[in-house]
Amino acid sequence: MKNWIKVASAAAIGIALSASAANAAWEKVVVATEGAYPPFNMMDENGKLIGFDVDFANKLCETAKIECEIVAQDWDGMIPGLLAKKYDAIIAQMSITEERKRSIDFSDYYSNTPAVFVGKDGMSIAAYKDGKVIEDALDGMVVGVQRSTTHANFLEDNFPGIEIRMYGTQDEALLDLTAGRVDATLADSGTLEAWINSDEGKGYGFVSNQFAPSKWFGDGAGIGIRKEDQDLKAIFNKALAEMLANGSYDELNKKYFPAINLHPN
Amino acid sequence: MFEDLLYVLGKYDTWLWRGFLLTVELLVISVTLGTLLAIPLAVARVSKKVWIQAVPFSFIYVFRGTPLIGQLFMMYYGVGQLVSNIDGIQDHWSWVYLRNPYWYCLLTFVLNTAAYVAEIMRGGIQNVPSGELEAARACGMSPWTIYRRIIFPRMWQMIWPAYTNDVIFTLKATSLASTVTMMELTGAARKIVARTALPYEAFISAGVIYLIIVYTLTFGFKGIERYLRRNERRKDKPPGAAKPASA
What we know:
The structure holds two protein chains of two kinds.
Chain A: H1 2-23, E1 28-33, E2 42-43, E3 49-50, H2 52-64, E4 67-72, H3 78-83, E5 89-90, H4 98-101, E6 105-111, E7 115-120, E8 128-129, E9 132-133, E10 142-146, H5 150-158, E11 163-167, H6 170-178, E12 184-188, H7 189-196, E13 204-206, H8 214-217, E14 221-225, H9 230-246, H10 248-256
Helix pairs in contact in A: 2-9, 2-10
Chain B: H1 2-11, H2 13-45, H3 50-65, H4 68-84, H5 95-98, H6 101-126, H7 130-138, H8 143-173, H9 185-196, H10 199-228, H11 230-236
């Protein structure tokens, strides 16, 4: 009796394994995005994922002729979720950094927007200039930033004396900026530009120059994939190159950021 | 796995240490102030007058009936936003405190703990044997003296195990502070995950620290329980006591 169960379960596991092996041909790819980083990725009033990253992911899969399903995932669990195979790729403005490369791999970069500080109009912050960090630029300030981001690392590594508040999403940091509980926030210029032009962002603006030293910010945002999925990386890179060549990337870029070139050089 | 654990512990020990201190601080203050607040609430709760009962009843009902994370967000993003909109408040000296998430967290935890502990205490007060109260009254004790000499000591005896449980519950509730930017133990672990992408190692480290805190608490509270029940111990063991009937 016991043996019979063992054989049956072994067979069942065997079937399950071979079924998942067949899927590895990438007919269907699950892509995760955050859904709280407008206008790159966000949710509309029906809870549907929209934004540049979502449109880009759809176009990319269409170009690569694979079926894609896009799911939402909290930023904190983005890399652990990928490693746990909850999804196969991350398209969520994740910067390609050395630290992250220790656990996952990235495609070529698909967008690159510099970082910038946002604060009340009339404020001025000079934290990074001419390739150098100015360490006392933020003294006495409370700065809000999204947890687990390159921006958080940049602040933590360079400004040990200031108070850094870390939020689960960038939206919460902006909420506290308008409540006056943080003096400034550091994030990606693309997402912040959309915010300062919105109703909530009235009276706030860019209060620093834009900067992106690659030591902290890497070389733009890439599509995050598991290290062993080199075939998927090749598929994505090929499709991305195609999109850049045929102008469909440009179209998306202009739709969301008329004034910013998301893919310099 | 083991190497990664050592890596996390070696590189981020100060984050964990600071997180530990903040967690303990939040716990001790919430439980102390919450308990002090719970005493008048519980006394009012057992009042025979409906209008005195109503206030603690609705307070307890709301705080026990809604999720703690909702209360925390209401306090931090709701009340906090309202406070920040008061004219001139941002230039006032008190703004340094009013903008700080620490006070909002602490207030939420104190109120939440008070609600739970008050309800536990109510049960304790109502279960004091009526014979003891009658005896106290017959001795001519005033209501205040009855509370001090009879009801409270008896109540503590009875509620102590439930109270211990609630303290441990509060310890784990403090982890929610990380959602409003407080870097307590869970916040520190999340930050380590963010840096290293090693979720198991970070959360195992934090989990072990929580276990150590719980162990210490349980140990200490057991000792206090023994002290509270010292009268029963004398009574339970008369010389040459009979064996339990169930044996």
